TrEMBL record:
Designated name of the protein: Isoprenyl transferase
Binding-site residues, substrate: 17-21, 29, 33, 61-63, 65, 67, 184, 190-192
EC number(s) reported in the record: 2.5.1.-
Signal peptide interval: none
Organism: Candidatus Scalindua rubra
GO molecular-function terms, A-Z: ditrans,polycis-polyprenyl diphosphate synthase [(2E,6E)-farnesyl diphosphate specific] activity; magnesium ion binding
Encoding gene, per UniProt annotation: uppS
Length: 238
């Protein structure tokens, strides 16, 4: 098992490969998403048991609206169902649910269930589970820039005082730590507009395993690899 001192505090995951997993088995793409929810439950529970500080999941990007209306509608229905059914998992594991993204563009019924789940979990004290919904890294930076520009115009912030910390305070993730480990499943080796500002110094771990097959063993493999790495943050290890 990975030693506690070598575990990342914040893990971010790009859950890729649901559709390809389904196609390889002769199923509709939506079957892959259904199976992917099982992996979400297992990985979330396992991270909570390991006392990981935060788990951020790329659940729905703002580019995903380009998919077929049938698939998008299914994903929204599945998200609503997940939020309702997983309240027990969140409660039993003392998880705090949060979200990032342009949530106001999600269907109203999804927003309602999301709000209920976050309200019910806000006093928990365990791991933070953050769902990136209608999220894009570039969009986040644009929204942060707009917010900062408004405050500069109002005289709340002085131009000469803007630094990394100031800009960070306008990001969706202003109250969160940056990811230590970014995992991507499905065989692709890119970050796909996910947490572009926040993963500047994250360790990256890619696997060809599709998300529906990513379970406790694969998580342990990623954590074991992470434990062997030396994090320099641009400096040198003496």
């Amino acid at each position: 098992m990975t030693k506690r001192k070598r575990l990342p505090n914040h893990i971010a995951i790009i859950m890729d490969g649901n559709g390809r997993w389904a196609r390889q088995r002769g199923f509709m793409r939506v079957r892959g998403h259904e199976e992917g929810v099982k992996s979400v439950r297992e990985i979330t529970t396992e991270c909570a048991k390991k006392h990981i500080g935060q788990l951020t999941l790329y659940a729905f990007s703002n580019e995903n609206w380009k998919r077929s209306k049938t698939e998008v509608n299914f994903l929204m229905r599945m998200l609503k169902k997940y939020l309702i059914e997983e309240r027990k998992t969140i409660r039993d594991n003392d998880i705090i649910l949060k979200t990032i993204g342009r949530i106001e563009a999600l269907p109203k019924d999804v927003q309602k269930e999301l709000s209920i789940s976050m309200e019910e979990s806000k006093n928990n004290t365990g791991m933070i589970l953050c769902l990136a919904l209608n999220y894009g890294g570039r969009t986040e930076i644009v929204d942060a820039t707009k917010g900062l520009a408004r405050d500069v115009k109002k005289g709340i912030v002085k131009l000469q005082d803007i630094d990394d910390a100031t800009f960070k305070s306008y990001m969706y993730t202003s109250d969160m730590s940056d990811p230590d480990l970014l995992i991507r499943t499905g065989g692709e080796m890119r970050v796909s507009n996910f947490l572009l500002w926040e993963v500047s110094y994250a360790e990256l771990w890619f696997t060809s395993v599709y998300w529906p097959e990513f379970k406790k063993k694969q998580l342990e493999d990623a954590l074991s690899d992470y434990a062997k790495r030396e994090r320099r943050f641009g400096g040198l290890i003496e």
